[in-house]
Design goal:
heterodimer; A: 221 residues; mainly alpha; globular; B: mainly alpha; 6 helices
């Protein structure tokens, strides 16, 4: 537990000193929103209906780029080897990395979500508590799976291409659940989204536990 | 064991072909094209079976590091993707005359294409990673995570039904296998395809083992060559 906290604060401090991930996440998030909105070219009346899909697709690709950087940094100068020689349980390394990614993805959402509302005339204020719950569930599930597979992808030859290939098909249940839950929240509150929220919760639990148990096999040398 | 596969596969395949094309009655509403069902559904079963074998063998590999388990996982993934591809090819051939479209985002179709993508990415990981002990572990992790994802996919694609109006109210099971010849046709073609898959997996595992032996011999020869020089 103390190891996980140490890794979390280390990762956040590295990120805060350069702010490189945050900067790239911000620009990429804005770009993806513009690309998706322009490609749809919706009428003002039709625009809000696109918000859930545009929001989550932008989040998935922006977040993937952000999470990927986290482990590539660990590779430079063999930082990971140092991390593994430290007296920290690999499961704690996973927990620390997962927490750092949740923070980074939360920053991504803080960029993507308000801008989606702005660009697509979607009014998020009245449903904010329900929307925040769905955003958090989507964030944690995303981070649980992406933390495990960014470690895998960073240690193979074709790193940059491999992470989306491995991650996207596995994350499709999360994407479907998140988009459906967001739609339901915008239409009538969290109560209408019970099934979709159940998918998100199950996804979070299954992959947080799987990642925690399997991470040792990924980083072991 | 390995030598008994060719005659078994040939015999069961011929029996399946005879049943499907000679003995089974033509389905009343869908007509002759419905006969693809016997290979389509049986292929889906074999693909699923293959993916569960990947997960089981992957867990064994992480547990005790047995190379045989790793070779089994890789071979089962290849054969599973092959049969999953067959499902995705035979499905549209059947769907076009019966439903009027080649593809629809029915939960079952969506799930099949997601599964195909997961195990295709498994094969990409193997191909990009190369022959490395670490890559075998990564593949084993992916093999286990892939199967954990299956129930989540099954539940989540059901949510999609809400947006896509029911193009399909009748699915494979609904075609009603009342005729005993139809049941026999499905059973025997499933048996034939399971045997074929087992044979392919056995061949692929042997192939991988021989490849590893050749690589080891080559390393040895190079080492000796180095000494001589």
């Amino acid at each position: 537990m103390r190891g996980a906290l140490a890794i979390l604060s280390k990762d956040l401090r590295i990120e805060w000193r350069t702010r490189e991930s945050l900067a790239s996440v911000f620009v990429l998030g804005v770009l993806l929103l513009v690309v998706l909105t322009v490609a749809h070219d919706p009428t003002p009346e039709a625009a809000p209906a696109l918000a859930p899909a545009v929001l989550w697709v932008s989040f998935v690709f922006t977040g993937l780029a952000g999470v990927q950087r986290g482990f590539l940094l660990e590779r430079e100068n063999d930082c990971l080897a140092g991390l593994l020689t430290a007296p920290v349980d690999p499961a704690d390394i996973y927990a620390g990395k997962l927490a750092a990614n949740v923070v980074l993805l939360g920053a991504t959402q803080a960029v993507v979500v308000p801008l989606t509302g702005l660009f697509l005339h979607a009014d998020f204020w009245p449903v904010l508590p329900g929307l925040l719950a769905v955003l958090l569930l989507g964030n944690v599930g995303f981070a649980a799976l992406a933390t495990l597979f960014s470690a895998v992808a960073a240690r193979t030859r074709a790193r940059e291409t491999l992470l989306p290939l491995l991650f996207l098909p596995l994350a499709l249940p999360l994407l479907i659940g998140a988009v459906q839950a967001t739609q339901a929240v915008l239409a009538g509150g969290l109560g209408a989204a019970r099934e979709a929220v159940a998918v998100l919760v199950a996804f979070d639990v299954v992959f947080a536990v799987a990642g925690w148990l399997l991470f040792a096999y990924v980083v072991r040398d | 064991m390995r030598r008994s596969f060719p005659p078994l596969v040939c015999a069961s395949m011929l029996a399946a072909l005879w049943l499907v094309f000679m003995a089974v009655p033509t389905e009343r509403e869908m007509g002759i094209v419905q006969r693809i069902f016997y290979f389509h559904v049986a292929s889906a079963w074999v693909a699923f079976l293959g993916f569960f074998v990947v997960a089981g063998a992957s867990a064994v590999y992480l547990w005790n590091g047995a190379r045989r388990a790793d070779r089994l996982a890789e071979a089962a993934a290849e054969v599973g993707v092959l049969f999953c591809t067959l499902v995705l090819v035979t499905g549209p051939i059947w769907a076009r005359p019966v439903w009027g479209v080649w593809w629809t985002w029915d939960p079952r179709l969506t799930m099949t294409v997601i599964l195909w993508a997961i195990y295709a990415s498994y094969l990409m990981l193997r191909a990009f990673g190369g022959e490395d002990e670490a890559v075998r572990r990564y593949a084993a992790v992916l093999g286990i995570v892939g199967v954990l994802d299956i129930p989540l996919i099954m539940v989540s694609v059901r949510l999609l039904r809400g947006i896509h109006p029911a193009v399909i109210t009748r699915n494979e099971g609904g075609s009603g296998l009342t005729d005993p010849w139809m049941r026999a046709g499905l059973g025997v073609s499933a048996l034939a395809l399971v045997l074929l898959a087992a044979w392919l997996i056995a061949l692929r595992m042997r192939n991988a083992r021989l490849g590893e032996e050749v690589a080891a011999l080559r390393r040895e020869a190079l080492a000796h060559g180095g000494e001589a020089a």
